[in-house]
Amino acid sequence: MTARARFTADETRERILVVAEEHFRRVGYAKTAIADIAAELGMSPANVYRFFASKSAICEEIARRLLDSCHDLLRAIVAEKHVPASERLARMTITIHQFNKTQMFDEKRLHDMVEAAMTENWHVVKAHLETLVSLFAEVIKEGMAAGEFAMRDPVEAAWSFKQCHASVFHPSLIAQCALEFDLDEQTRRLTQFAIRALKA
Predict the structure, then answer these.
(1) Domain extent at residue 41
(2) CATH number for the domain including 118?
(3) Identity of the highest mean pLDDT range in 15-19, 22-26, 57-61, 109-113
(4) Which of 52, 66, 51, 187 is nearest to 118 (CA)?
(5) Helix (H, G, I), strand (E, B) or coil at 82
(6) Per-residue pLDDT at 91 exceeds 90
(7) Phi-psi category of residue 54: left, alpha or beta, with phi > 0 → left and psi -120 to 50 → alpha
(8) pTM for the predicted model, two decimal places
(9) How many whole angstroms separate alpha carbon 189 and alpha carbon 94?
(10) Which residue from 61, 122, 131, 175 has the highest number of Cβ atoms inside 10 Å of its Cβ?
(11) What's the domain count of the chain?
């Protein structure tokens, strides 16, 4: 019985993504070919191409899911309305930093896939950055309403808040700075500075 007969289209698509991610983690994105993924699934490369136009398209979907998992962590923090906005922002920044640092060092091969996504599928990364700004803006707006922060455009404030943390958010910059700085401490200091600016 063929995979096509045993699995629905959605199930087959999911199996391709699961196996592809396993290969990306084990041998790296660059060293994984569509033929490797197909062989693991017991299907032809042509069948994989029925669901994804290219390895880049598979990378895009896995990267989107990976980044969505970060968004879920942040949304849980945003939802804690009883916690002051400044504290939530501080927890959000350390969460983003720790998430990206894990991908950079603990999951180096998966990070290579994210780097490829940044080059080949910039719209996925752009959507991720827009989500970060949106979540920051929500908390900042609530902080303004509570009198915790000075009144200003919350979206512009959120964009500046994100940019302030570029050196501890961007995976490549984390790699460059890790040997010279305590990046967890730097994240806390940058956040303290940015929060003081929001209050000014």
Answers:
(1) 3-52
(2) 1.10.357.10
(3) 15-19
(4) 66
(5) coil
(6) yes
(7) beta
(8) 0.86
(9) 11
(10) 61
(11) 2
For residue 36, the domain's CATH number is 1.10.10.60
pLDDT confidence of 12, banded at 50, 70, 90?
Answer: very high
CA atoms of 194 and 199, how far apart (whole Å)? 9
Retrieve residue 79's tokens.
């939802």
Q: Are residues 31 and 79 in the same domain?
A: no
Q: Worst-scoring range by mean pLDDT, 58-67, 177-186, 190-199?
A: 177-186
Q: How far is the C-alpha of 13 from the C-alpha of 9, rounded, in Å?
A: 6
Residue with tokens 């500075």: 193
- Whether residue 115 sits in one domain with residue 137: yes
At 99, list the tokens: 């998430």
Position 53 pLDDT exceeds 70: yes
Residue scoring higher pLDDT (124 or 174): 124
Report how far residue 49's alpha carbon sits from residue 59's, in angstroms, rounded to the nearest whole number: 13
What's the pLDDT at 105?
66
Amino acid at 98: Q
**Are residues 24 and 105 both part of a single domain?**
no
Contact of 29 with 59, CB cutoff 8 Å: yes
d(CA 163, CA 169): 9
Residue 14 tokens read as 């999911």
> At residue 126, does pLDDT exceed 80?
yes
